[in-house]
Write a structure and sequence with these properties.
The chain is low in regular secondary structure. The protein has a domain of about 30 residues. It is about 0% helix and about 0% strand. The chain has no helix or strand. The mean pLDDT is about 85.
Amino acid sequence: MREETLEFRGGPARGLPRRNRTYGAGRTCADPLCETRLSIYNRSNHCWQHEPVRAFIPRGKRRRREAA
C-alpha cells in the first residue's frame, strides 16, 4: 500500500474585524424641538440636521507640486 501525503496551501486564518462601537439605544436629538431617534452607531448627541458646523480638516497624502 502506498501512503498518501496531504498538502495544504493557503495563508493563515485571520481573526474577525473589530466590532463597531455603539452608543446607548433609544436616544433622541439634543435639540429641544427635535424628536429624531438617534442610531446606536451615532456618537453625537444631535441628528444630522442639528449637528453643529465643524471645520473640515483634510487628511491624507499631499501631492507633489509636479504631480498637481
